[in-house]
Amino acid sequence: MYRLFSERNGWKWIPFEIDRIKSSTTGVRSAIVSIEGECCYAKLRFEGGVHRVQRTPVTDKTRIHTSTSSIAILPEPETPELVIQPGDLRKETMRSSGAGGANVNANSTAVRLTHIPTGISVKAQDERYLQVNEKLAHKRLSAILLKRQIDQINSKYSGTRKLQVGSSERSEKIRTFNYKDNRVVDHRLK
Asked: Where is the Peptide chain release factor domain (predicted)?
């Protein structure tokens, strides 16, 4: 259904994962696809929700089968770039604890970096030299801040998906496709 709509609009349809029903030739249990093209998100973003399909099965022409599908339309998240300004960091040097001999006892080789805007701090004292520990602490802090950014993006998209799909029950339907009568009903327009 959406594949044909995409092709008619000149968009690129890229299936990532399609889980088909084994006993059926056309049935799809779940699918993840990417649609690329001009204004595709603007046109598709209101398609998210529960869709009800009414069809006549091939084996019995007197009955109507009703099934539902949950559609979530999400823009592809951009990869976050992490830029840590030097003014956002507070650096403290101290003596390392533990084994290390005279170098550990005489020199400050441990470092603690604190990211001032978030209050996150990391300490590195694994290596023998201050510069190496400073690079290690910077690497650890960058990893923590990047994970935090990714988690924020994921929670934003997960909230958007939850708003679109809800609990995926039939009562939350936004549209009904009746193939027998060749009719589409949009329940949001009533």
From this structure: 1-71
